[in-house]
Sequence to fold (234 residues):
Amino acid sequence: MDDSLIFKAVANTRILRPPKQRLATFGITNIDYYLLTTPSYPAEDGDASSPAETVIREGKVIVQQPRIVTPYYLSRLEGFSDEAKRYFSLLVDRYGSQAPGLMYAYKNESKGLNIVPGELHTVAQNINQQLDRDKIELSTIIEGEDILWDVSLLKFIYDLTRHSLQGNLSDLGSRGRLGVGADGVPSDARFHIEELFSKALRDEADPKDLKDELERWELFNEYQDRFFALFKKK
Fold:
């Protein structure tokens, strides 16, 4: 696909109703979205006087708790192409293997698509009024491109993350989670490991997830006695 079409979709994306709070620092954020587009199909029989219609795509963006990571940690994640891993290597070369950064993880859950009569901005106004009546603060209305609607959704996610970044960093700093130890492991990673241990002990997390996290940071040897003790207590 021509990159110019992607740039056009980004340029034509409008946030008609932004969420009324930023991404949570210490928890999962769920944002309901209504992505509105003008149908890409032509008016019936080429009749420009046909009633206007709007496409409504509903869904939920789930944002995991942001994590402090390093280029080295990213290079050990699975599911990435050789090109992506090469990019991680370039980050290591440029910033150092232990340079901290904030990582956000997202999931999009689509709820469905509806085509309704009415001009896009009229439909948006009606949805906005309903959300106000229902007092749903973590919701957004997005105007986007019909064919590349998911590009418009990603543009929203990017902007929301960018606007949340400083607040998230401030929150992490106030709890002493921005530091990096002499071993190159961020304080936040240690906190996260302790959380995984607690959840595994309560059977709220798979011990394999804990083991994978320890190995990504090359900390399994340090924690292995505690890890194996989890199974003795069951």
